[in-house]
Amino acid sequence: MMTTSASFSSLNIDKWLVDSLSAMAIRKPTPIQAACIPPILAGKDCIGGSRTGSGKTVAFAVPILQQWAKDPFGVFAVVLTPTRELAIQIAEQFTALGAPQNLKICLLIGGVDMRTQALSLGTRPHVVIATPGRMADHIHSSGEDTICGLRRAKIVVLDEADRMLSETFAQDLGDCLEVLPKAGKDGRQTLLFTATMTEEVKMLKELEGREGRRECFVCEVETDKVAIPPTLDQRYLLLNSFTREAYLHTLLSTPGNENKSTIVFTNRTETANLLTHILRQLGHRVTALHSQLAQSDRIDSLGRFRAEAARILVATDVASRGLDIPVVELVVNYDVPRDPDDYIHRVGRTARAGKAGEAITFVSERDVALAENIETRIGTKLEKYVDEPGVSLEGRVVRETLQLVSEKKRVAKMDIDEGRNEMGKRKRKLVEKANKRKKAVRGE
């Protein structure tokens, strides 16, 4: 394996790509990039495992673009990734890298007009970046003339492969792969990248040589099995479940935390939505990221948090993987994740690149077993949260914030209900207008 002392030029990367990387302030390959780029350029299948933030997108984007530039016609590569935000982020990197060669990208994600996407897909873009669900929608409904370019793709990438190979995406991914060229020496080249090297991912290596498949290169560099950063302070806070909101507000308001860039993770979108409204009522600069938001709102929220216009991001696990968020000082697990791997991904949002960070997990009477599972998975015990000097968190909750937060929670619920009613009215008006137009066409 090559070391980070290598340069992109020494990996036989074309000058135009080296210049594009330099313009993005990427001058030396990371370990995963140095290891995977040469075998991908040599035509091998690749399974690349490396922790979040290690540059996996560049590891597959650079060799794809170098090979595409030799014959820039039609759909050359398809990249499948589990979330809209990751798809957008990957598209941004491909766009920046491929700009000197007039790269055409098609982005297929939910929350965007299907017809606009179908028109883009029908123009034979060079790289298609998609979530499996939306690509499957196009396969089923957009017609052969639109999707036929997918059948000639040379390279297929599964990003966050451990999630893509889970039951959640099984049906949609299967539909996508049915349309894409078959794997094999004379078929597509397949690249899998992940932060967590699961057994399902490793099993694909065993297919090498069967049914005429390509040679497969496997690289595992600091995957998230051992990726709890040494600079991360992990703690738990034991509390009663009905006091969660009050503890969260109090914790975020302590002198040590009141200026920290913070992500608050929840297990459910409804919880994230309610918490966002409560914290806003309490005067926090907060924004949200979850699947119930419109795509434009999700993009805006992430942009506000990155630009520090919002100090707190309340999110579900759509924000736990892969997203490029430069500085997060505190992660709060408002809900204990049910999968210990999700805990690793969540806390991996902070203490990056050798910087210090803190993760605090709220543990109620019902969460003890889940917390113990996490401790077993990471191989260490979570430390008990210790109050800041002169600040009694429990005392402030009981004396000052419990009643206040309860009042704000009632107001937040009213706001949410009013918003739903207003949305319902708008939908009914749109339906009425559509029905009137139909009647007018029929001459009724």
TrEMBL record:
Domain (Helicase C-terminal): residue spans on this chain: 247-394
Native species = Sphaerosporella brunnea
Is Hydrolase among the key words of this record?
yes
Q: Which GO terms describe its biological process?
A: gene expression; ribosome biogenesis
Coiled coil regions in record: none
**What sequence ranges are listed for the domain Helicase ATP-binding?**
37-215
- All copies of the DEAD-box RNA helicase Q domain together span 6-34
Tell where it localizes.
Answer: Nucleus
Keywords per UniProt: ATP-binding, Helicase, Hydrolase, Nucleotide-binding, Nucleus, Ribosome biogenesis, RNA-binding
Note whether RNA-binding occurs among the keywords.
yes
For bias kind Basic residues, which ranges apply?
Answer: 425-444
Q: Which domain of life is it from?
A: Eukaryota
The primary site where this protein sits is nucleus
Q: Which family does it belong to?
A: Belongs to the DEAD box helicase family.
User: What are the GO MF terms of this UniProt record?
Assistant: ATP binding; hydrolase activity; RNA binding; RNA helicase activity
Give the residue ranges for region: Disordered.
416-444
Q: Could you give one GO CC term from the UniProt record?
A: nucleus
Name of the protein in its database record: P-loop containing nucleoside triphosphate hydrolase protein
Motif Q motif residues? 6-34
InterPro entries named among the record's database cross-references: DEAD/DEAH_box_helicase_dom (IPR011545), DEAD_box_RNA_helicase (IPR050079), Helicase_ATP-bd (IPR014001), Helicase_C-like (IPR001650), P-loop_NTPase (IPR027417), RNA-helicase_DEAD-box_CS (IPR000629), RNA_helicase_DEAD_Q_motif (IPR014014)
